[in-house]
Design a protein that fits this description.
Layout: H1 5-11, H2 31-34, H3 40-44, E1 50-52, E2 58-60, H4 72-76, E3 92-95, H5 109-113, E4 119-124, E5 127-133, H6 143-147, E6 153-156, H7 158-166
Antiparallel strand pairs: 1-2, 3-6, 4-5
């Protein structure tokens, strides 16, 4: 029995077959309509951040150091799926309460891994510096989260980031 896309959406709690937070970089909400699921982008990705997902659509699965935005996935795709003029990812990094620096232990691994320098550490009197992430500068590449010894960094949409920071 084949499950229709609308039924799949219902079973997934109203979410599309490929959740928007897992789409490959530089893709839009029309991704599932344009993607032929050929796998060329997955095979082209040198960082291996793309993998087959639900329904055979490529999805982002961070397993290593993150996305370097090399564009190999976009170059390999025969369909008009990728738009390099778009923002690559809509999610941003957030720091959770298990962060070593927030718990009085000197650590700046995430800042060292952040190529766009979206993470800065603010000095605190008598305590280790505290991480501050610029939502405007963060690319959502996952490099900071990959090196965090406490897995204290997560990637969230900007609205989730604001909700988390006010909690």
């Amino acid at each position: 029995m084949t499950v229709s896309r609308s039924r799949r959406t219902l079973f997934l709690g109203g979410r599309s077959a490929v959740a928007s937070e897992r789409r490959p970089p530089w893709t839009s909400d029309s991704f599932t309509d344009l993607c032929s699921r050929c796998g060329d982008c997955i095979r082209a990705c040198p960082e291996q951040v793309l993998a087959p997902g639900d329904g055979g659509f490529p999805q982002v699965v961070f397993r290593g150091e993150g996305c370097t935005f090399c564009g190999e996935c976009a170059g390999a795709c025969p369909e008009p799926v990728f738009d390099l003029a778009r923002e690559a990812f809509h999610w941003k990094a957030t720091v959770g309460n298990t962060c070593l620096a927030l718990n009085g232990i000197h650590c700046q691994s995430c800042q060292d891994a952040c190529e766009p320098r979206a993470i800065r550490f603010r000095p605190r009197l008598g305590k280790p510096p505290e991480p501050d992430i610029s939502e405007d500068t963060c690319t959502g590449c996952f490099a900071c989260a990959a090196v965090c010894p406490q897995d204290a960094i997560s990637l969230n949409t900007p609205s989730e980031t604001r909700e988390t920071s006010h909690a």
